[in-house]
Amino acid sequence: MASTSSPDKIEEVRREIDQLYGQTFNSDRFMDEMTRVLHGKMLKYNWVGFYMLEPGTKPPVLVLGHFQGAMTPHTRIPLHEGICGAAASSGKTVVVDDVHSDPRYLACSIETKSEIVVPVFVRGEVVGELDIDSHFPAAFGGQDRDFVEHCARLVGKKLEQAQA
Question: How far apart are CA 84 and CA 128, in angstroms?
């Protein structure tokens, strides 16, 4: 059985993220504040961070941006490596209930048991992703997935506004 977040907690934090979206005009600050809220308020979100595609790099590379949690050795990830690379290159959310059984997993912490990675889109193109690790197996159920995808969409909208 999945040890997912409670629907009430997700709804409470979703409202806080939505409020933050309306009050924050800078995309960089929004991502920073979002990582703080998700890490601080969601018990099973033990590492929360953004990886953004570095413009102009060949081959494409994801670069660690704002994050909350332990330091990671993976500050630069080639686009087609790891679970992060899989999400960014496919443009699809990747949920892994047991990272140690997934050969794509780039080990960061022995405490990490499960992971969700959601692409961030700007005008239909992947520009980065929201990556969340948990110390709990199967921590990300359907409601978590919908919630994290919502957060990634808001970041995409904020980035689009910044480019307008």
Answer: 9
Cis peptide before 60 (omega within 30 of 0): no
**Joined tokens for residue 146:** 């919908």
* Nearest of 52, 60, 21 to residue 130 by alpha carbon: 52
Alpha helices in the chain (DSSP H): 7-23, 27-41, 82-90, 142-163
Provide the mean pLDDT of the chain: 92
Q: Residues 86-130: pLDDT tens digits? A: 899 999 999 999 988 876 777 777 788 999 999 999 999 999 999
The 8-class DSSP code of residue 54 comes to P
CB of 119 closer than 8 Å to CB of 152: yes
| Residue 60 and residue 54 in contact, taking contact as beta carbons nearer than 8 Å | yes
